[in-house]
Amino acid sequence: MVMIRAATGGERLVLEGAADFEGLTIKNAELTPGAWGEGFADRRHPHTYVHELMLLAPDLLRDLGLPAHLSLGLGKGFVPFGTDDPMSRPVERFPVNHHLSQILERAVAMAGVQAGPAELEGSLFNGDEPQRPDQWPKVSRLGDSWSLRFTLRPAQGFEWEVSRAFVRSPETRDAQGLDASKWSSAVRWNGPVLGKPVYAMLEWSQSTAPGVYTLHSALFETQVQTGAHQPYLRLERTDRPEEERTLDPFVVLRPIVDNSILGVTRWTIGTLGYAALAGRVWKVSLKPFVEGSLIGITQVGGGIFNPKVFYGKEQHWSLTGGVRLAWGMTAHRMGRYDEGPGAMAMPMGAR
Amino acid sequence: MRRAGVVLLLVVAGCHSNDPIGPPVVPGKVVLAATVPIAPNYGVHDTFIRNGIAMVCVWNSGLLIYDVGNGIKSGTPYKPVLVGSVVPSSDGIGAGPEIHNAWWFWNPTNGEKKYLFLGQEGPGKVGSQSSGDIHVIDVSNLTTPSEVGFFHLTGAGTHNFWMDEAHQILYAAYYDAGVVSIDVSGTLSGDISSRLIHQVTPGTVGDTTYTWGVQLYHGSVYAIDMMSGLTQLSTDSTGALARVAGSNNVPARFSSDLSVDTSAGYVYTGTWDHQQRTGLAGSVVYVWSLSGSGAPTLVDSITTTQVGAVSDVKVSPDGKLLMFTTEAGPNSGFYFYSLANPAAPSFLDYYQTGTEGIHTGKWAEIGGHLYAFGAKNPSNPALIILDVTGLDN
After folding, report:
1. Are B42 and A244 a contacting pair at CB < 8 A?
2. What is the pTM of this model?
3. What CA–CA distance (Å, rounded) separates A164 from A144?
């Protein structure tokens, strides 16, 4: 991923962008039991090549000396809803709730008002999710969906948000599918605890397809830094809709031919990981990591999807290792455009 | 002037009746007659053809009525001509009218051809939850069809139909509600939900059902249930329903459609394997013989690999051919089998249509030819019409 940031003098206008090359490097997605969305199941989908391209006016009222700040944004990127993108958080494994707790890669027009510790953001965007890395949002659908997010920052490092969104037919580009009515609330800490940098986040989210199903998610994750060591933990319980798959068990049927699902599964996952700041080679920082997950899958409610039949058993484990490489500026916080460059971004898990 | 007009009309009618309807029949060959593109909303789901009129069910685009040989708009199977259309109400279902299937009711008691029933396949959870009403469309004027009523069953959604037209009874598969019979006599207007005659669950284990389709034959309604397989239900001129035989006879797979060979007394059923019930690959057409009492006994099967489902099964009107359609795999398309021995169908031909496949298939006899109408799935959804006369020897 390559990120750019450009600004006019005094940062009256800011351009933030992120190019993502996962469409080339993980064309068939990344093996991740529980992940779903954008045509994949149990594989984390590649993002679009133009992941973000936002033109931002961060503080339109600055010359008036008012105790409030007004910001505007227009472009392609994150909708003000829910929590930060998993890509900018410590755990490498994507959570099951990615499509419940974030709304991204949309054509979005947003506005935000901040006064003291409180901030209210609102947006209009297109409901359709991308179906492949080279796809742009369907501009004709801009405005068919909306979101609101209220954030309170009563103390340095502490943040609480509550979000609401209506997403028109996210799974079908021609707007013929089920809508999603969404809620999210999360508390987040990013600051010192007993003298050591600590990141922690507890979130709850819910997504309802009216009259058909409601999906719930609860997730807690934390990371501590002691010297070069960064142990981390995530606990998650999230519901996932089970869709018809093709003969490839990792690919779901797209376009879909009706609006029925096969059932809902509940994923309970505990992930324990360790990363180390291993220094730099030239200007590239190295951070090797290893993480393991215990995974439980159960059927929720009716439907014909039986995880025991499909997966052979209901308990699984996974082990992931790798090295995160980073070069250049500090990445911006993915999911919020209301803060300066690098502010609170990628707390300790930058890659 | 008046006399000249009459002469002109006669000439036009004569031209129409003498026009070749398509290329000459090639024995043993299937010929593509037409491909009618359909707007991807999601596209075409099913078709009901009667008297040269094709009632095409196109999801949120509603109903499209084509002349495919009736003459009302000079259409043929090789050149379908749109006659009329209507988008029914969504009946409060957020995803839209989601029109899946149709039955054009020709009432023999009064000669009316006024009502068309449309099935709304609303959102659901396969195996346990469904939604969608039956919409009543007035097609007295095929160019201006209009919705005049609806049937709603609380907590369930409809799927495929069959009719006892003589007794003015509509039988509907109703997914998690099983099979229902509905009185459709007289004038139909507004909410006709009170016309429910009877409702029965085909399965015998826990009464769990997800009934896909029904067909009336010799006083029995045969129901195919995704969960419990093939069941024989008794019925009568009042529409009363009762379980008689069969059921819980396809335990290894989820069942899909059915068709009865009314001349030989065999039933053919498909399987739906988008989600494998027990891990068995491929999709199957099962062959059932019917006893003197009408009870089904499994006698043969046909397995197709590399598909997600046998999406439809239909016996030709003359009982000579079996067609089944498949979807979601490289071997998707139309399959044609000879029913010279109805207990053991023999392969005749396969018409490939792309990986997405065919959602449903229907037969129609038009102008002495036999056609297969198929609903091609998105992307690029289309109504595909095949001239199958060459196989129908």
Report:
1. no
2. 0.91
3. 15
User: What local confidence, expressed as pLDDT, does residue A173 receive?
Assistant: 87
Neighbouring-strand partners of residue A270: A235, A294
CB atoms A176 and B59 under 8 Å: yes
Q: Which of A172, A240, A257 best probes binding to B when mutated, by most B CB atoms within 10 angstroms?
A: A257
CB contact under 8 A, A259 and B98: yes
Residue B11 belongs to what H/E stretch? helix B2-18
Q: Is A125 helix (H, G, I), strand (E, B) or coil?
A: strand
Q: How far does chain B reach from its first CA to its final CA, in angstroms?
A: 49
What b/e string do you get for B375-390 counting C-beta neighbours within 10 Å, with b at 16 or more?
bbbbeebbbbbbbbbb
Sole residue written with tokens 């599918």: A177
DSSP code of A47? Answer: P
Among residues A343, A339, A345, A342, the alpha carbon closest in space to that of A59 is found at A339
Picking from B60, B93, B125, the nearest residue to A260 by CB comes out as B125
**Beta-ladder partners of B237:** none
Q: Are strands B190-191 and B196-200 parallel, antiparallel or unpaired?
A: unpaired
Q: How far is A294 from chain B (nearest CA, A)?
A: 24
A228: exposed, middle or buried (C-beta count within 10 Å: 0-12, 13-18, 19+)?
Answer: exposed
Can you tell me the distance from the alpha carbon of B363 to that of B392, in angstroms, rounded to the nearest whole number? 12
Distance (Å, whole) CA B41 – CA B96: 10
Q: For each of chain A's 351 residues, which pLDDT tens digit applies?
A: 899 889 998 889 999 999 999 999 999 999 999 999 999 999 999 999 999 999 999 999 888 888 899 999 999 999 999 999 999 899 999 999 999 999 999 999 999 999 999 999 999 999 999 989 999 999 999 999 999 999 999 999 999 999 999 999 998 888 888 999 999 999 999 999 999 999 999 999 999 998 889 999 999 999 999 999 999 999 999 999 999 999 999 999 888 888 899 999 999 999 999 999 999 998 899 999 999 999 999 999 999 999 999 999 999 999 999 999 998 867 677 888 876 543 433 433 333
d(CA B137, CA B118): 7
- Taking CB atoms and an 8 Å cutoff, what residues of chain B touch A305? 275
Contacts A178 to B, Cβ<8 Å = 94-95, 123
Q: Does B60 touch chain A (CB under 8 A)?
A: yes
Question: What would you report as the CA-atom Rg of chain A, rounded to the nearest whole angstrom?
Answer: 20
Give residue B10's identity as a one-letter amino acid code. L
Of A99, A97, A122, the residue nearest A110 (C-alpha): A122
Q: What is the pLDDT of residues B330-371, one digit of tens each?
A: 999 999 999 999 999 999 999 999 999 999 999 999 999 999
How many Cα atoms occupy the beta-carbon half-sphere of B128 within 13 Å? Answer: 16
pLDDT tens, residue by residue, A295-320: 999 999 999 999 999 999 999 999 99
Amino acid letter, residue A247: L
Residue with tokens 């039956």: B134
